[in-house]
Design brief:
The chain is an alpha+beta fold and 207 residues long. It contains 5 helices and 8 strands. The chain folds into 2 domains: 2-19 and 112-201; 25-107, no CATH class. It has a 5-stranded antiparallel sheet with strand order 1-2-3-4-5, with helices on one face. Strands 6-7-8 form a 3-stranded antiparallel sheet, covered by helices on one side.
């Protein structure tokens, strides 16, 4: 899916995403279900960590009034009972901590990939690739206009199929910069971005 935004006459943003643009009831239900499961898993991990804390307090015989009341409330809640049944009855401490970490990473895992090309006339271009996790920063690079020698589309074999790449030739670098390297959109979309990027990047020639 390709979306194009033009904040100003000299700026254009091209974004490609693996996320479906469909807004059907099924897709919305899927999104809602995924979000609900993430929230439930997060609450379950929180309850498990509170149980770990409660066990540590029991071993040290340390209690802290109001804080202890909150811990006791979570420990004896339905989520606390579920967490104890799933993790504490049959798993040792190291295994539980490993499950907490993996679940935590899955909760914040991004369900789709998004890449963009921002073109600003007279300044340059900025490529961005989304991180696989919401907790990590996106991969971004800015290339000034003065270093851009050319923007072109070329074809190459990937396995047994031909793939098309939108590339930027940067002065002083041996390798080209591939735009949308993770998604690799179809040729028709790349041609649309290529034409628009070149038209926006350089000043139009006066008559």
């Amino acid at each position: 899916m390709l979306t194009t935004k033009r904040p100003t006459e000299t700026t254009v943003l091209y974004t490609v995403s693996t996320q479906s643009a469909s807004k059907t009831i099924i897709s919305r239900l899927g999104t809602t279900l995924s979000l609900s499961l993430r929230i439930l898993a997060g609450l379950l991990i929180l309850a498990s960590l509170v149980l770990e804390y409660d066990q540590a307090l029991n071993k040290q015989d340390e209690r802290q009034g109001a804080g202890d009341s909150l811990v006791s409330l979570i420990v004896h809640s339905p989520l606390g009972h579920i967490a104890r049944y799933l993790f504490f009855n049959s798993l040792s401490g190291p295994w539980r901590l490993s499950i907490y970490l993996v679940t935590f990473l899955l909760i914040f895992r991004r369900g789709h990939t998004e890449e963009s090309l921002l073109v600003i006339r007279g300044l340059g271009v900025q490529t961005t690739t989304s991180s696989p996790n919401y907790l990590w920063t996106n991969s971004t690079r800015f290339i000034p206009t003065s270093l851009i020698q050319d923007i072109f589309i070329y074809e190459a074999f990937k396995g047994f199929e031909v793939r098309y790449y939108l590339s930027i030739v940067v002065e002083g670098e041996e390798d080209v910069v591939v735009v949308f390297p993770s998604i690799l959109p179809r040729r028709e979309l790349l041609e649309q971005v290529w034409r628009g990027a070149r038209a926006c990047l350089y000043e139009p020639k006066s008559g």
